[in-house]
């Protein structure tokens, strides 16, 4: 039996020139290998951050379909960079925790109606988890953290710039769906919003460790733009992703006034571009009014699953759809309920164990960041904590076709790596990696 997801997958493959796309991927891999070893991993991160979000722009078929089919390309380039420069990272057990969890999710979809689509999605997530976990273990010192977060941030500028271009070239289509929310080139605001928000958080984190005035100005501009674009989406969960870490960073640095100025600049940019253009933006969503009904949907899922197939989820009854429960008409909009839907209580309990451990480490790192005013600890520590709340209204973190899952996995595993330094008595990541020569006096790291 072929499900809806399988049909979509086949349609995507039929819409692209597979051989031509394969040659492009081969050329990208060749280009990466020919780069100096010190640049390969960061180049992979940059290309991944630039390419992965392109699958959100459904009105741009020339970008949307190839990006959808090659969602694995970015993680693949990162793995290629790691394999050719730092293969030792795969010897650490921490790298394999989330990929193995992804493989466990794959087992539970083997009897679904859309098994091809479901397996590609789950195995793709596991593949991405291996890439971003390996990247986090590779990034062991302050200098590499700055390079990696910089590659994430500057790479994301490309899709963010394309989204912002919709305000100029297609303002009607951007807000033309009658709901007062920003749909740049057809991108769902609940999916593009986390890209804007997480990039803003990374820009803020880098600003506080950047010594060069010009680059700090560029990062401030990215932060302001991301703040304005996040507001335009009308996504409360995206606003949480941006505001939560920003408030923690402000608390650590005692710079509430400074943060308020950045926020005001973002609000001003939003007002100048959108409000004055006459677009009817749905402010009720951001200010707390209105009800999306997601919690009610999650309750329906929970009650039905506990009553019908609590032990093995989709594996307990064959022929079901991996994406949504029949008769409900939509997915659960809640990661914790989604784990119950996919794999029953065993998968939910395994995920809960991982998330509780992640939360404990995150809280410790945030407290250490506040004590030492270290933006890397604050920024990385805040992202998994925000994710725990964000998971209550969305499931995008367990899908490999968005940048949010990449940022979350990298942050979570990086915190596990940093906790090792905490146990050794360090309050922050070392200035240079163990075994690497220290920089000359006066050289910033």
From TrEMBL:
Alphabetically ordered keywords of this record: Membrane, Transmembrane, Transmembrane helix
Top-rank taxon, per record: Bacteria
Chain segments annotated as transmembrane: 12-34, 41-57, 63-82, 94-113, 119-140, 152-172, 192-209, 256-273, 339-363, 375-397
UniProt name for this protein: O-antigen polymerase family protein
Taxonomic classification: Bacteria, Pseudomonadati, Planctomycetota, Phycisphaerae, Phycisphaerales
